[in-house]
## 1
Amino acid sequence: MEKNRCIVVDDEPAAHYVLVNYIERSADLELVAQCYNAFEALEYLRNNRVDLIFLDIDMPEITGMEFLKMLDNPPKTILTTAYSEYALESYDYGVVDYLLKPISFPRFIKAVQRFLSFNQSIIPQEEEPKTISIRMDGRLIEVKLSQIDFIQSFGNYVKIVTPAQTYLTASTTQQILTQVPASKFVRIHKSYIASINKVSKYEHGMVQINNMSLPVGITFRRELQERLGNR
């Protein structure tokens, strides 16, 4: 498993000695740089990936807090300082934890575990598809989801209706429903799937989409109302 790349930014050699020793004892961290001021850290970050910064607050010329404010998208940070008065302000900048010097190894490990837990809680979302692939007249066609107004069951076929064209493909509404993102489409009837953002009006059991009125089945009305309310 790849270790998390970290750097130490502190103007005191003694602080480096302690933190480097602790980092080397941690199986989850890899020390990739030691910086003694904000300028060195900025230069390193400009050209290298860093997952975690151990950052001293009280540094000459540019303080740790000033350094964080300079970064558009700073790595996760654990602050290290002998002064506690900055603790509240530091959390405004997404700081993972705050260690008071002298730092004990158990407290260091607790801060690292907080960093690891934070990273594990961020689950990357799969990118939603932008098109749907259908077979029409023996050819495979890509239809942009953003252009679809609604989808209608039509015997053994399905009609995919856009403002410019209607596509007819051998499929079922249930099969199509599994291929379109649930965040953008909703089933409103056993025969219809609607693009939720294209619905301009819903009343008297009917929805309006680009001058087309579509029926809403009784069993689908509650979900439709909730979805429209959350747009």
## 2
Amino acid sequence: MDYQYPMDLDWSTDEIVDVIKFFEAVEKAYENKIQKEAFMKAYRRFKEIVPGKADEKKYTDEFESVSTYSAYQVIKKAKGLDEGDWVKMK
């Protein structure tokens, strides 16, 4: 990883850590695989920190521009999977 995760300096340390965990979950979906439940847990926590759609898009687009990994595509795929499935992007 040769990039920085997008974040807001107004977030608490715990919130920054949880947002980074979400972006790491997106990376896992592309680089290996991640269980749907683990990914969705990270996503739900991300949404607690970034509840607005516009802000979510801002941070996920910024992440995609530096990493090439689309959080949107992982979220979309994960939502369509059954419990117990693995999220694996190709």
## 3
Amino acid sequence: MSTGVIILIVIAAVAVVLGVAVLALRTRGAQGGRGLKRRFGPEYERAVARHDGDVKAAERELAQLVERHGGLRERPLEPTEAERFEARWAAAQEHFVESPKEAVDEADRLLAELAQARGFPDGAQYEEQLAALAVHHADHVQGYRHVHHVSHARVGGEREGGGAGTEEMREALIEARALFEDLAGPVGRRASHESRRDTDRQAPARSNGHRGHLPWTFTRHAKGS
């Protein structure tokens, strides 16, 4: 076999190997994107929006979050721990009627403490705790983000545009409850949105004694509405 033929065979082989490598990288990238979108759900769309539609930048950010927090293992709560957290959440909900801002502040603190008790980063490191929660509770972490924002907004026009109104505080507390239920329940429990909507419609005035069905006594007639 002549030297020229051997060179052609080598060039063809290299071209095939490169083609396979490129195809593999593209396939892996597509699968990675689909995997991130499946894992993060609404947080994936928020990440894309934060990056002004740059999907690759958003996926790099989310992949880094998974690398940093994906190995976290949630610690189960002791029954007495869970009961204490649930009692505090129920009290905050009932307190909303008289003091909406104080109730929202307590919900924000409670989520931070509950997440820390489950093994997430210290609540004093809000951004890091939120990032870890986004990896493991992506469907409901927006509720924590919302209630934290409302809790730290100044009240009654003390900042440009004014603070959060009673209705926004009420909505933030309702949204945050979904994450609370995820964290307060057994590891791996992920109650459906439909189940929670049914519970909201029923809105029992007092706890019926079953975990996950918490009292929700306030509506639109809280003070300041």
